[in-house]
Amino acid sequence: MQSKNTKKWWALFALSLGVFMGLLDITVVNVALPTMVKSFSTTFNDLQWVVNAYTIAFSVILLVVSKLGDMYGRKKVVLISMLVFVIASAINGLATNLLILDIGRVVQAFGGAGLMTLSMALVASNFGGPQRGTALGILGSVMGLSTVSGPLIGGLLVESFGWPAIFYVNVPIGIIAAILIWFTIDETPSYGKGQKIDWLGMFLSTAAIFFAVYGLVEKENHPHLPWTDLSIAAWLVAAVALLLIFILVEMRSNHPMMNLKLFKNANFVGSVIVAFTLGSAVYASNIYLTSLMQNYMGYSAFDTGVRQLTMTVWNLILGPVTGYLGAKYSKRKIISASLLLAGMGFLLLANAMTTKLTYMQLVPTLIMLGITNGLVNPMLNTAGLEGAAPKEIGMVSGLLNVFRQLGTSFGIVILGLAQTSHYDQYLNAHFSFSQVPLAMAESLKQTLIQAGPFSGNTIAYSSKLQDLPFVKELQGVVWNAYCSGMRGLAYTAMTIVLIGAVGAFCLLKDNSKSK
Fold it and tell me: Measuring CA to CA, how many Å separate 365 from each of 27, 152, 192, 303, 462?
């Protein structure tokens, strides 16, 4: 009995390794981009697809691989996913040009998505009773930790071994995890055995998610274009149309890709709202906090990661106890209160954003966001799976992951638009220097606006402008514009988590034994 119990915890360790790698590779590449620019002799715009290719492919394949796991066995499909992920990681590290790297990132994402969504389903099916809550809590902590630890791990690997190391490190870890999974995990039943694959449903769901994420990526890359621009609107409208067609097809299918009755469950809908909120506010904002610390406060990627430990450490502290907390107390109240705590953190960030900002002023926000992530992400997995039939666990976990990832893509765009809007407004209102010709000032202002908040500081402090008599004044205006943008971003994120808190409180159900 003891041996079987020990075997399950080794299985959790192996699956956690897979989840950590799959999610880490969404963010870890960001810190390697400056090095890659030099290595490939290219531009940041061209390299952006190294990031976007993984994000889009990861989002697209989540539901499909969940369904395949249900039909053919989750252990079998997760091992295939691990093999795909490891091989693609090795190819990425060896890539000699961007085309090979972009293709490798797509293939790698297919493996990463399988590791992510099927690991959650395997943990849920291999653990029962109180142990399930604890195990899902630990896995949720790993998810949260991997999402926000990219700067630290990526910075350490790139600075010590070069950019290929962020891919090569997956190979030995993946092999070890695969061996452990093979020997420690029991295969789940093939719940869809004998069913026909819903090829049309798979195609429509994949296409709808692809169009939605791609449209958001286009908006992210071109923030000054209106939503109505065809290069953005066409993708989003097509996504909505395909989603509607998908729903109609699934309602009439004898063997549907997805059981739409899941959305009649208020608790599941509440969990989806929380997943989307967590992605669009907490995870998306971490990208902008990292940019703040690196581009404006002057920390290196590694130093930024170290300072963000005040946020990431809470995943390790709180994750293992969330199962106990969720069983004893109301998950609905804990999740709602945690989201409110994140709202307070964003409010403090908005008030701290001045040109005299220090790291210590950021610490309260980092702690509050860390506690929110450390409590909500693990508890969300348990809450979402409550009442789900064994054959639905794969699809439920897949949907939670899809909405978490869609939320992150949506949040990056919405928070970025809020930041850019306030940044532009400040520059337009305050960009005037008495000793500068009007035409020159206008040209410089437009350059800063087009560069956006991320690069404004780099331009203001570039060596080309250091001899200008008004350079100090210019740098002050750019810093203040950036602060204005971050305040707008913080207020937007605060609004998102407040809406999510209300949704969680109204829709999630309470454990009958909870307080």
Answer: 21, 18, 46, 18, 30
Count of H-run helices and E-run strands, the chain: 20, 0
Sequence-ordered alpha helix ranges (H) in 431-510: 438-460, 471-507
Q: Reduce the secondary structure of 222-247 to three states and give it as a string.
A: CCCCCCCCHHHHHHHHHHHHHHHHHH
pLDDT tens for 43-59 read 666 677 787 788 788 87
Range of the domain at 242: 196-254
Please tell me whether residues 53 and 148 are part of one structural domain: yes
In a domain? residue 114 = yes
DSSP state string for 174-214: HHHHHHHHHHH-PPPP-TTTTPPP-HHHHHHHHHHHHHHHH
Tell me, yes or no, whether 306 lies in a domain. Answer: no
DSSP category for residue 508: S
Whole-model pTM?
A: 0.83
For 151-195, write each residue's pLDDT tens digit: 778 878 888 888 898 889 889 989 998 998 888 887 777 666 666
